[in-house]
Write a structure and sequence with these properties.
single chain; about 130 residues; mainly alpha; 8 helices; about 0% strand; globular
Length: about 130
């Protein structure tokens, strides 16, 4: 019998399915047969960590920072595109991904995430860090 703590379920409420290891795609593909077991797997520990919400807030802030003064941030670009039309064309999507890949925000987010994992490695031992290579 699988057990999932009530507090953990509460931590999942409101999270996008991408945070849950591409939940929708995995379920549709038949890779998830038992949600209780799925959310008890080691990868999900970060979702229940007491500082995870703080990390998500910091990442949102980093998305809002422009590369250069006077430039739009990745977050601003996405909001502008979505405000114009909810259906994003493939070329626009690719341009956004390229902007993100070359942005200071991407490096800052990666650095912050790996710092978070390193700082919390005692509680989150299942995650690889940059120093493990």
């Amino acid at each position: 019998k699988s057990e999932l703590k009530t507090d953990n379920i509460c931590q999942l409420h409101g999270l996008h399915q991408q945070y849950m290891n591409c939940l929708e795609q995995r379920f549709d593909g038949g890779l998830i047969t038992n949600f209780f077991e799925y959310f008890n797997e080691p990868w999900s520990l970060v979702l229940y960590h007491d500082r995870f919400e703080e990390l998500r807030e910091e990442i949102r802030e980093l998305f809002g920072q422009p590369n250069q003064p006077g430039e739009e941030s990745i977050s601003d670009k996405v909001c502008q595109i979505v405000d114009e039309d909810l259906a994003i064309e493939e070329k626009t999507k690719q341009a956004l991904l390229e902007d993100y890949a070359n942005s200071l925000a991407k490096r800052a987010i990666e650095n912050r995430f790996f710092s978070y994992l390193s700082y919390n490695r005692y509680h989150l031992p299942h995650y690889a860090t940059r120093n493990m290579a």
